[in-house]
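Hi both,

Apologies for the delay on this - the queue was longer than expected. I finally got the pyridoxal-5'-phosphate-bound model through. Below you'll find the protein sequence and the ligand SMILES exactly as submitted, and right after that the structure tokens for the full complex including the ligand.
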Amino acid sequence: MTMPFKAQTSSSAASSTASNAAATGLVSIDLKQIGQNWANLQALVGPAQCGAVVKADAYGLGADKVIPALVRAGCKTFFIATPSEAEETRARAPNAVIYALDGLVSGAERDFARLGVRPILSTFAQVEAWDNYSRSKRQRLPAGLHIDTGLNRLGLGARDARRLAGDETLRASLDLTLVMSHLACADNPADGKNRDQLLAFETLSALFRGVPRSLAASDGLMLGKPYQFDLVRPGYALYGGQASQSNPAPVTPVVTVTAAILSFSDVAPGETVGYSATWRANRPSRIATVAAGYADGVPRSASAPDGRPAAQVRIAGVLCPIVGRVSMDLITVDVTDLGHRLEQVSHATLIGPGLTIEDAGYAADTIGYEILTRLGRRFERVYLDDGA
Ligand SMILES: *Cc1c(COP(=O)(O)O)cnc(C)c1O
């Protein structure tokens, strides 16, 4: 699985335009596995349909590559967040249904209509604005409807949902193609809030008879059939993430991140390593300096293991702790125990087999989602098996 670092930029069977400059780091993204993850989830939720959330540049992995891979796998419904994501998504998925989760951001009517992207209306005012725009164009432009069932983030509350359902003129002129809500605690199957939201969604969505329904993201769809309705909306699971520790999804990681080791240094007991001298050697130590820092997506919070286990990277097959501060371009790693195994070593693995995005997130007091979406743009990117 781990390839020799130097060989990758030139000989990989990938489509990325390999630059001539020597890469200090490499992000490899397995597009075939993303397609397989989608297919696994589709098989799990059928007869419900499995969509794909590709907001935030497909969680940082590159929407331009990820969306076509999902189309090839058979995905027909995509979710983005913002109007700025609409254009590229439409270009990469010309025939797909595309929903915008952030709703009708003011002024976005024209672009959404032109691109055939459906806003998921989340306030009564947005419903009226979309309806007015549609009438002015003498069209019934499709849209989704977001109902809040307890997350208290986006969506019409119960009262507005009933008001809309009771407004026969507005209902007749609106072309609602999806009614959705979002779960607050689906990563914990034991949380009673899941059932409360499920019941609220069943009640409120019934006001819009015949409109397809969606409640679950990556974690929610693992709560079982009652949560899957007509359409599920995974993002994280497609990219190999496990949103719920207790309820693992049938998916496999897709991202590997490696970075070059720039130097080794020997540090005497009592000496410190890095900015602010936060780490002090208590034995003769060997430190590897690796070309990855917070500008490359290693959170600076991975440097201060206050009670948490130290963040780790894999060098010569062995998990080794990051010591001292993460800086913009560099981390320092304690490789004292590796001995002669360091002789042939040229790189460290930051994300890969046995080092999940969840591990990296936990060690930095964050979640795997943030690790993915903050992967830096400075490393070389290689897309495996993109079928192009
Ligand atoms: C981001 C998002 C999703 C996807 O969530 P994952 O946990 O990545 O599967 C689904 N629905 C809504 C409303 C979202 O904001």
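Main takeaway for now: The longest strand covers residues 255-267.

I'll put the files on the shared drive as well.

H.
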